[in-house]
Each structure stands twice: as C-alpha cells, then as structure tokens.
Amino acid sequence: EHKDVEDMRNIGISAHIDSGKTTLTERLLFYTGRIDQMHEVKGKDLVGAVMDSMELERQRGITIQSAATQVSWGRTAINIIDTPGHVDFTVEVERALRVLDGAVLVLCAVGGVQSQTLTVCRQMKRYSVPCIAFINKLDRTGSNPLRVLSQLRSKLHYNAALLQLPIGLEGNHKGVVDLIHRRAVYFLGEHGEEVKLDEPPADMKTEMEERRHELIEHVSNADEALGEMYLEEKTPSEEQIVAGIRRACLERKFFPVLMGSALKNKGVQPLLDAVVSFLPNPSEVTNYALDEQSSEKAKKIAMNPRRDDSHPMIALAFKLEAGRFGQLTYVRMYQGSLRKGDTVWNTRTGRKVRVPRLVRMHASEMEDVGEAYAGDICALFGVDCATGDTFVSEQGLKLSMESIHVPEAVISMSISPKDNKDQRQLLQGREPFLPGGPHLPRRRTTRNQQGDDSSRGMGERALGHRMRSAWPASTTVPWCWASPRWLSGSV
User: Fold this and answer.
1) Name one Pfam family in it (predicted).
2) What would the pLDDT profile of 281-340 be if each residue is shown by its tens digit?
3) Fold topology of 5-284
C-alpha cells in the first residue's frame, strides 16, 4: 500500500543490554497483528523472539544485529528496527540511528540509566533523532520509575517528564494512569490485548494532578505556545498539551516518558499511540546530501520527502548482510522512487547497477515489493556496494548522503590455521563476507611463519561473532585464536 508521508514512521528501539527491547518489539508485532503468537527471548518455548532470527541470538538471548520489520497501527505504517544493547555491537546501533527519524529509548525500572544508555543517547544526539522513553519491567522487584526519571534528568540532562503513573509496582502492577487524559488504563485478556479505560484510583488522584502540572510545566519550558499559556495562567486543553509535546519532542527539547511491563503485556499499546502522536514522519526531518560537484567544499542539498518520482531517486546503503541468496543491501530511501528492474548508479564507484529484486524485510523473512518511495526502508539483492554508499537514479549526479559514523576500534583479534597448508582454504571461505562490517579483517600479518588475519572491533563478543560468520570454512579447517590485543580507542 502506498502510504502518505504523514502516515509513516521510521523508528528504532535502543537501550542498555537486558532492558527488554526485543521482548517489547515482540509485543509491538503481536498487538499490531504482524504475528499471531508471541515468543520469548532465549527461546524458552523452543522458538525464540521473531526479531532474533540468528541461532546465536536465540541461544544467548541477546540481539547481535539490527533486525527490521514494518507494522501498521491504525492508519500509520511504522518501520521498526530492533538494535543490539551490548556495547560490543554499537556499530549496529550507529547504522540504524543514521537512517531513522525517531527512537524509543527503553530503560529498566530497576537498573535505570546505565553505561550503554549513555552511549545510545550520544548516538541519538549525533544524528538529531527525537526520542520517547519507555520505562520497562515495572513488574520486577525493586522497580522505581521515579528514580529512573530522576536519572534521565541528572545523568542525561534531559528535559523529561512522565506521561503516565504506575498503578502498583512489582507483583501488584496492574496498569498505568494517563496524565494527559486523567484516566486509568488497564490491560485485560490472556495477552493484555484488551485495553480498558477507567477512572483513576481514588488514592492516586492527588499525585496525578501534581504530576500532570509538572508535565505541563516541563513542556511549557520547551514549547513557546504552551509557555505563553502557562505564563498567562491559562489551562491548556488535552489537544493543546499533545500538540505542545509533539512540537517540543521533534526539536529534542522535551522527552516524554511512558512505562509498563512488556513481559507482562502492560503499557505497550499506549507506547504505539505515543510513537504516532509524538515522533516525526519523514517529511518532518530534514535530510541532506552532499553535492560533491559544487565546489572545493561540498554543498549540502536538502532532500525532498515527497513520495513520488518528481525528483531523482537518492538512497543510502546502511547495512550489508550475507543472505541465503547472496548479498542483501539494506537501503533507506531519501528522495524519489525505486522500482524492481530500475537502473541506478553508485556515486562512490560510478558503476551502473540494475535492481533485480526489491524486498521488505521482516526479521529474516522477505516480502517482495514492486516499488519504494522516499521514507521507505527496503533491501536490494545482487547489488555490489559497501556500507555508506549512495545510489542515485541519474548518471553524473554526484550526490552522497553523509556517512555513517564508525567509532574507533578498541580491540584486535586474529585467527590462523593450525596447519599452514590450510591457509588458502580458510581465507577463501572468508572473502565473500568482507564488505559486511566496518571492523572486519583488513590486514594480513605473519606469526610463526604462518599467515593470520587480524580483525578490529568494539569487543571480544562482537569480534567472535563477526569472525565466525566471516569464516564458514572454519567448521572444517583446524584453526586457533590469538590473544586479544587492546587498542587505544574508546567506546
């Protein structure tokens, strides 16, 4: 279905490891009708979460590579990318945030703001990504959403305020109080699919009014229209509060905070409503390409977000993946349209490329699509390119999207065959996978008169995964790891 740009959202879900991102994404897929049955992380039901499509992800219960899918909530199509939380896989988060228009920051109600939360928030700031926060795991012992709110303000220096209050915590968590509309929200049914609106509990009405006033005060500090009403001591309507939150959120001047328990199926539907209400559509984010022909200093050209073919097609390849049918190239469309069979040009190499197949991803599954427009995230088959390459529809158009930031590597590891005669077989098994990651092997060294390949990255966990993926021949060729060597970079 060809959606209007106002009815589209491109969002990422990011957090510190074990904050419940993938569990939350599984609920988003279920409540939007994308999947018929929910499964748990770590494959407790022998299936595993849909977005953790790799076997290693299901075994360890962690997200290793960003997974993409599209869901519908009401009239709105939402492209969702579930990103890794472990610091070792921070480049995957970087790739995702570069092409997204908004994000959901998931925080644990017990752990609060943690180390990787700080890293993710720096990445969001780098790409000016508006964000809403979701305090997860209210059912856990020791959960304290007010402490997490305090950390958002003190550690991240966010102008943040609650949009909801919890009705009970830990084992007594029943639902949330909607501060904007002054109502209680309960989640009934076997899987929390039935949303029931009711009067707020009598013993929470005083706190509700206090927190609602605090919410309006924080938004008024960030939004001019609401600020004027606040100074004139006028009471804004519910619609005016929502509009003020949206304006301030788009400018990253205010950070709405919602809460719930994804595992217990509470608070997810209001989060979907908030994504539609407060995060931008592609036309509300200005993206630029660099015109490398203009002068010695590249000139920035604003992209036109209209979803038609009135402007030349411009797309960014933000991720490469070795799929079952060859290299899969994830692209974000920034301008114009792209159809199956079209011819495009890689502005870095100048090469002409035909697009044999255009697909939309749902975790590891693919759905063929006939065309894609500005704002879409899709994938191409059989296209030879590198991460960060720009594709255009007109030969000679020297435009390129701003590159993805790759943090400096902090660790180096190497792999070598135990017998020198297996060197060629080991390296040949690796070659097709080299373009996939920015820190994958780049140099050869000599150790004990045998060849070895050195790879750099953000941590042992990421390098172990990447190098096992890059060396499929290692299942038959005896090999060994060299000791990790720490470099001078920083995470």
Assistant:
1) GTP_EFTU_D2
2) 999 999 999 987 766 677 889 999 999 999 999 999 888 887 666 788 889 999 999 999
3) Rossmann fold (3.40.50)
**What are 64-89's pLDDT values in tens digits?**
344 678 899 999 999 998 766 444 44
The neighbouring-strand residues paired with 337 are: 373
Q: What distance, in Å, lies between the first and last C-alpha atoms of the chain? A: 41
Could you please state the CATH topology (level 3) that the domain comprising 411-486 is classified under. Alpha-Beta Plaits (3.30.70)
State whether residue 306 is helix, strand or coil: coil
Q: What is the DSSP code string of 424-440?
A: HHHHHHHGGGGGG-TTS
pLDDT digits over 388-429, tens only?
Answer: 899 999 998 988 887 666 666 666 666 667 677 666 666 655
Domain 288-401: CATH superfamily, name plus number = Translation factors (2.40.30.10)
Q: Using H for helix, E for strand and C for coil, what is the string for 12-78?
A: EEEECCCCCHHHHHHHHHHHCCCCCCCCCHHHCCCCCCCCCCCHHHHHHCCCCCCEEEEEEECCEEE
Residue 93 tokens, joined: 């988060």
Return the pLDDT at 456.
63
Between the alpha carbon of residue 269 and those of residues 77, 196, 394, the distances in Å are 15, 11, 43
Rounded Cα gap, residues 182 and 195, in angstroms = 16
Q: Mean pLDDT throughout 24-37? A: 92
Of 99 and 242, the one with more pLDDT: 242
CA distances from residue 359 to 40, 159, 335, 391 in whole angstroms, order as listed: 27, 39, 18, 16
* Nearest alpha carbon to residue 80 among 346, 272, 237, 248: 272
> Do the two domains 5-284 and 411-486 of this chain adopt the same fold?
no
Look at residue 82 in the predicted model and tell me its pLDDT.
72
| pLDDT of 54 | 44
- Domain spans, the chain: 5-284, 288-401, 411-486
Count of C-beta atoms within a 10 Å radius of residue 247: 18
